[in-house]
Amino acid sequence: VKNEGMNVWLAYAHGASLMHLDGLGLGTGLSRDDVHGTRQMAKELIKGQIPISDRDVATAGFEDELKGIDNVYSPSQNAFGVHPFFIPLGSEEIPKHTHFSLTAPTTGMNMRRVLRALQLSKPVLLEGSPGVGKTSLISALAAASGHRLVRINLSEQTDISDLMGSDLPTPADTNSESNEKSGPGHSGTIFRWCDGVLLKAIKRGDWVLLDELNLASQSVLEGLNSCLDHRANVFIPELGQTFDLPPSFRIFAAQNPLVQGGGRKGLPKSFLNRFTKVYVEALLPDDLENIMLSRFPSISPLLISKMVSFNSAVQKDVMETRAYGQLGSPWEFNLRDMFRWCELLENGGGVSPDVFADIIYMQRFRTASDRVKLSQRYTEHMESDISAQRYPEISITDTHVKVGGALLKRSIYSSDCFVQESKPHIYQSSNCAMEALAYCVQLDWPCLMVGSSSSGKSTLVKVLSESCNVRLEEVSLTSSTDVTELIGCFEQVDCTETSKHILRLLEKCHKGACQVLHGHSKFAKICRLYQTLEQKTLDASSVTEKTLPLAVSAELVNLLKDCAREDYCFSDLCGDDLTTVHDLIAIIQNYGDKATGGSHFRWVDGILVKAMERGDWLHLENANFCSASVLDRLNPIMEQGGELILAECSVSSDDQKHPHQAHRVVTRHPNFRLFLSMNPTSGEVSRAMRNRCIEISL
After folding, report:
1. Which of 84, 139, 228, 248 is the most exposed place for a label (fewest CB within 10 A)?
2. Under a CB-based contact definition with an 8 Å cutoff, are residues 132 and 334 in contact?
3. What H or E segment, with its residue span, contains residue 433?
4. Do 84 and 6 contact (CB within 8 A), yes or no?
């Protein structure tokens, strides 16, 4: 009906694939061979029902799903696709290179199935093992067709208000009309509506990817029903409005199989029926080789062929024949590992692939016998030996820290970190693990350290952070750890405690100025102002908002901020603290007047948000003690260029014509790094979480 020019038998064959065959394997637990056998028998049955005269036309892209994959069609007629399925182009600019091979055999077949699913107005559900490229496929398809993709990571902590929106407290503008209506006593905080990330995407007509769908709570799934069925709208009771889904808006959902664990649950059939289902096939060696050659053209095809062969052999040994690697299993050896290996080769400055194979593959295995068998497999495929014990050299200069082949920049100035002046004292046997850790820092990869108590997990991170002069924040997670401890929450304003915090930060910034600005023209004035501040607050422990000299503090902050704009080193050292002090002084000025009455609340960032914005390193200890729903909140920031959306906190938009509140988006500082550690005797974290990290076993 939708494609009137399409042969009726072609539509019949592809319709059967769309409704029954593309989703085979989704939620069933069937093996790959069983799925392929069932699908092939069904295709033979359908082919036998098609008249012989129409078979050549009707089976195009049906019998052989790889046929014509190379002919990706994106002409000037505003369409993108592969024959016989096309979708209209969006309004976004189409990049010349998507860094994702849509013509690799299995990837192209998966893309054709998604394009086939997009011929219906139903949402699309993709399921596949971690690392098979579910998110990457939709991201590449959105980019190639000119659509903006909004990725939403779901978890048990996700609430429907996070998606649709809610009224959030915001500082009141004393001159605003809404505040005048509120009357006296309400000048501190008022509530304003803030669109959720899904509602915002609906208004803009974007594509939305709901990642980890089977981690979401039942209330969230029920709240999505009207977006997924024939109604195609969403009603917001707080606003009393109904928002229709625009034609360009599409919903995709992705999930790992139920057997992956980590709090995943089986979804109700009534809910699954609202989706067009596509099971994402695992990538074959030919696909990996095709993708690697496309993504990393500087690496020789022969070396890539050997790397793919080795990766596939290890996956078969560990997950199919179970020849080794059973302690710590199940494992994943997939596209992520291949990407990491190639990235190391590109950034390694001529270092042997053997070193990087040790980091990516060898370091994760937990027994000596497993490592020996892995090295034997490596020798078979790569014609090289990685069994010999290595002792990478560690050296520190004024500007860099070198661990084996990894080279890290060293912060020259540090106001609160221990400055490592000599070679760090660690056991020589830990040097390989230290090198792997340093490469994780260099390439901005999350790292998961596994080992028994007192095996040196925390020590390695501390030594490396001290050597680089970087602030390290450590958090010991427990079963009672809540997500608010990591991201933050609203707290009542305590002006006395805020005043003491201002003094502590000003003292820290003054020390930083003494380190960096001693030759600056404004340094003398900074010292005089700080001396005046010290004289007026002799007893810092008893200072209050009434005894804190706000005028002197504000003048000192403004002077230091001027210096930060002129001096990069001082800005890097104290810029974030100066911003914090400026905001705290504004809080004292706005909320310190007791005449306004009432209680005032402000958002206080958690340790994760602080580290992300300041560029600190964050070490989450005992990650396996923590609830999976809390760790799932970390998923967005474990991807390259990831952002953390704080649905609990709002900020004012930059749109001057249509001012409104928006959820706060925390962008990673370039220097932010994330480390997790765990003792495996107390359990494992989910396979998906492990697959996102470089795993180092001590």
Report:
1. 248
2. yes
3. helix 431-443
4. yes
Q: In the structure encoding, which two tokens stand for residue 228, read together?
A: 């997924």
Q: Say which amino acid occupies 491.
A: E
Question: Residues near 165 by Cβ (< 8 Å), separated by ≥ 6?
Answer: 193, 194, 195, 196, 199, 236, 238
Task: Write the DSSP symbol of residue 267.
Answer: P
The pTM of the whole model exceeds 0.90 = no
**Which amino acid is located at 125 in the chain?**
L
Task: Please tell me what DSSP assigns to residue 682.
Answer: G
Strand partners, 662: 195, 651
| Listed residue (110, 120, 116) closest to 81, CA to CA | 116
Helices and strands of the chain, counted as H and E runs:
26, 23
Lay out the sheet containing 207-211: strands in order across.
149-153, 207-211, 250-255, 124-127, 276-279
Per-residue pLDDT tens digits for 446-470: 999 999 998 989 999 999 999 998 9
Q: Which residue has the tokens 């790292």?
A: 447
Determine contact, residues 618/477, Cβ cutoff 8 Å: no
pLDDT band at 301 (very low <50, low <70, confident <90, very high): very high
Q: Residues 6 or more apart from 453 whose CB is under 8 A from it?
A: 679
Q: What is the pLDDT of residues 204-213, one digit of tens each?
A: 999 999 998 9
Closest C-alpha among 521, 542, 524 to residue 532 = 524
Strand-strand pairing, 661-667 and 189-195 = parallel
The alpha helices in 567-658, defined as continuous H runs, are 568-591, 607-614, 628-631
User: DSSP assignment, residue 38?
Assistant: H
* DSSP single-letter state for residue 568: H
Q: Which amino acid is at 477?
A: L
Which residue shows structure tokens 């979708």?
87
